[in-house]
Each structure stands twice: as C-alpha cells, then as structure tokens.
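ok trying this again, last paste got cut off
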Amino acid sequence: MRKNSIKNTRINAEVQRELSIILQNGIKDPRVAPMTSVVAVEVAPDLKTCKAYISVLGDEKARQDTLKGLQSAEGYIRRELARTVNMRNTPEIRFIADQSIEYGVNISRKIDEVNRDSYNGAEDQ
C-alpha cells in the first residue's frame, strides 16, 4: 500500500480527529497544557506506529511538560483510540512537538515589521 493512498489519508484524518477529542476531554494530567492541539497525524501503512504532531500554546517548558505528560498517558490514549476507532491494529503513538504554527506567527510578525519600517521610511522622504 502506498503511503499516501486514499485509505491511509482517511485513517490519518480519523485518528487525528479522535486524538484531538481524547486530548480535549480525557487527559487529566496537569502537565498537559490546556491549549494543546493535534496538528497532523501520520499512521504507518501497516497500522503499527503513528506519529502525532502536537502544537502547544506556551513557552518551551510548557511544551516539554506536555510531551512528558502525553508520553506517560500513551497507554490510556491508545486504549481510548482502540475503543473509538475500529482498526485491525491500534498503533503505538509517538508524540512530536510541532513548531510550524509558532514559526508561521514569527515570520508573519517579521513581515509586518518590515512593512511598517518601509512604510515609515516612505513617509520620511
């Protein structure tokens, strides 16, 4: 099976949706930040492993604490995923911090600064 087949794409979307619900409603670990979201999910074609890209609103310490909390709750998350998603195998989940949203916000801020500086420079002339 190809990695980006239609079946795999549907499985990725379903697992991402269910993981988001589980993180929102089921995790009681105080280390997990309340503003944690699942950005993307990549389930292997054999359904044995899964990479879940997690975005955390907060500083580096909040990000590290959230990843530790999620890793310690992996058994619970996997059990809930098996209960809600009907798959032959429930994949082992590996949580990875995703910083693409933070990177995009930072780039957008820099573009705004450059535009503001060039606008102020045009007024001076």
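PB: full thing came through this time. The chain has a mean pLDDT of 85.
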